[in-house]
C-alpha cells in the first residue's frame, strides 16, 4: 500500500517538475548574420518567464521558433514535450499567442469572432481543461463585455489590444506566448492584464513567455527574467537576484542625531538588524536601495555587447 502511494507521489512529482519548454544551444542565422548563437533556458509549469533584450537581439525570433512558425538553424528545442518543428494541430491547440498587433477580421463583431475562433478548440477539450474559454466569461476577464457587439474595426486602440489578448487565450492554453502585450494599454488596462496573467498561472498553471520593453512590467510579472544580448542568454534570475549579481552590495541610508549616513552592505538585512541593536530608536529615515532592474539590465547588455 505504502509503496503504491509513494510511486504515485513520485510520478506526480515528475509531472510537476517536467519543463514546459527546454531550449539548448538554439541557433539562428540569416545568411552570414547570426542572430542567435547558443540560447539555453527552460520553463516550468505555471512559471512566468520574461525575455528582455535590445531591439534586434532575437527575442521575436526565439518566440517564433518555439511557436513552430520559424525553423531554427541549429540546436534543440522541446515545447510541451514536442519539437516545435514537428508540432501538430493537437499540440498547437495547447498554445496561445498574442502578437504585437493583429489587423484581420475588422468586420466581425467581438463576440462572434471569439465564438468562431473558440470553436476550433472544442475538439481538443480534455477532462482536465475544458476548451474553449466560455466567451461571456472571457469578455468579462479581458474587460470587453461592454464591447461584445461592437465591430472590431471600430474598437479603440486599447480595446483592440484587449481583443488581441482574448484571441490569444480563447483556447485556454497550457503555454502562452506574449510579444509586447501591453503596448497601447492605459494604466488601468495594464493592471487588469497583470491580474489576468496571475490568474492564469495560479489557477490553470499556465506557463507564460513574455517579451516587453517595460522593465517595471517585467519586475511585476516575472518569476524569472532572461536577458538576451549578443545572441545568447547573458543573465537569468529574479529581478532581485540579477540586481545582487550586478551590484553585489546594497546601499543603506539612514539618519541619526541629524546626521546622514550611507553604507554599502552585502548583507543588508544583517547590517540593519545590527544598526537597530546598537542605536535603537535613534535611527530614522532608513532606506535600503539595491540597483534597479533598469541599471542592472543596461550594465549586463553593455558588458555582453562589449561596449
UniProtKB/TrEMBL annotation:
<dbReference type="GO" id="GO:0005524">
    <property type="term" value="F:ATP binding"/>
</dbReference>
<dbReference type="InterPro" id="IPR050763">
    <property type="entry name" value="ABC_transporter_ATP-binding"/>
</dbReference>
<dbReference type="GO" id="GO:0005886">
    <property type="term" value="C:plasma membrane"/>
</dbReference>
<keyword id="KW-0813">Transport</keyword>
<keyword id="KW-0547">Nucleotide-binding</keyword>
<dbReference type="InterPro" id="IPR003593">
    <property type="entry name" value="AAA+_ATPase"/>
</dbReference>
<dbReference type="GO" id="GO:0016887">
    <property type="term" value="F:ATP hydrolysis activity"/>
</dbReference>
<keyword id="KW-0067">ATP-binding</keyword>
<keyword id="KW-0046">Antibiotic resistance</keyword>
<dbReference type="GO" id="GO:0046677">
    <property type="term" value="P:response to antibiotic"/>
</dbReference>
<protein>
    <submittedName>
        <fullName>ABC-2 type transport system ATP-binding protein</fullName>
    </submittedName>
</protein>
<dbReference type="InterPro" id="IPR017871">
    <property type="entry name" value="ABC_transporter-like_CS"/>
</dbReference>
<dbReference type="Pfam" id="PF00005">
    <property type="entry name" value="ABC_tran"/>
</dbReference>
<feature type="domain" description="ABC transporter">
    <location>
        <begin position="21"/>
        <end position="255"/>
    </location>
</feature>
<dbReference type="InterPro" id="IPR003439">
    <property type="entry name" value="ABC_transporter-like_ATP-bd"/>
</dbReference>
<dbReference type="InterPro" id="IPR027417">
    <property type="entry name" value="P-loop_NTPase"/>
</dbReference>
Amino acid at each position: 500500500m505504502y509503496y503504491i502511494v509513494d510511486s504515485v507521489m513520485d510520478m506526480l512529482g515528475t509531472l510537476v517538475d517536467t519543463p514546459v519548454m527546454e531550449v539548448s544551444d538554439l541557433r539562428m542565422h540569416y545568411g552570414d548574420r547570426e542572430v542567435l548563437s547558443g540560447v539555453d533556458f527552460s520553463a516550468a509549469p505555471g512559471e512566468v518567464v520574461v525575455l528582455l533584450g535590445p531591439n534586434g537581439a532575437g527575442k521575436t525570433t526565439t518566440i517564433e521558433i518555439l511557436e513552430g512558425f520559424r525553423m531554427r538553424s541549429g540546436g534543440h528545442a522541446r515545447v510541451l514535450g514536442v519539437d516545435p518543428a514537428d508540432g501538430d494541430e493537437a499540440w498547437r491547440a495547447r498554445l496561445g499567442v498574442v502578437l504585437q498587433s493583429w489587423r484581420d477580421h475588422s468586420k466581425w463583431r467581438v463576440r462572434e469572432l471569439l465564438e468562431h475562433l473558440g470553436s476550433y478548440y472544442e475538439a481538443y477539450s480534455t477532462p482536465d481543461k475544458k476548451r474553449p474559454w466560455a466567451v461571456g466569461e472571457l469578455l468579462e476577464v479581458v474587460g470587453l463585455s461592454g464591447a461584445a457587439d461592437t465591430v472590431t474595426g471600430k474598437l479603440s486602440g486599447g480595446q483592440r489590444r484587449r481583443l488581441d489578448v482574448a484571441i490569444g487565450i480563447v483556447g485556454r492554453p497550457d503555454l502562452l506566448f506574449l510579444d509586447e502585450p501591453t503596448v497601447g494599454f492605459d494604466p488601468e488596462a495594464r493592471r487588469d492584464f497583470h491580474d489576468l496573467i496571475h490568474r492564469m498561472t495560479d489557477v490553470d498553471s499556465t506557463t507564460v513567455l513574455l517579451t516587453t520593453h517595460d522593465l517595471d512590467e517585467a519586475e511585476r510579472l516575472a518569476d524569472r527574467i532572461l536577458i538576451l544580448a549578443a545572441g545568447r542568454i547573458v543573465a537569468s534570475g529574479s529581478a532581485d537576484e540579477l540586481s545582487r549579481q550586478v551590484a553585489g552590495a546594497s546601499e543603506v541610508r539612514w539618519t541619526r542625531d541629524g546626521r546622514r549616513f550611507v553604507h554599502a552592505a552585502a548583507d543588508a538585512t544583517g547590517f540593519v538588524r545590527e544598526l537597530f541593536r546598537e542605536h535603537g530608536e535613534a535611527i530614522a529615515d532608513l532606506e535600503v536601495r539595491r540597483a534597479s532592474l533598469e541599471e542592472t539590465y543596461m550594465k549586463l547588455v553593455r558588458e555582453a555587447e562589449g561596449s
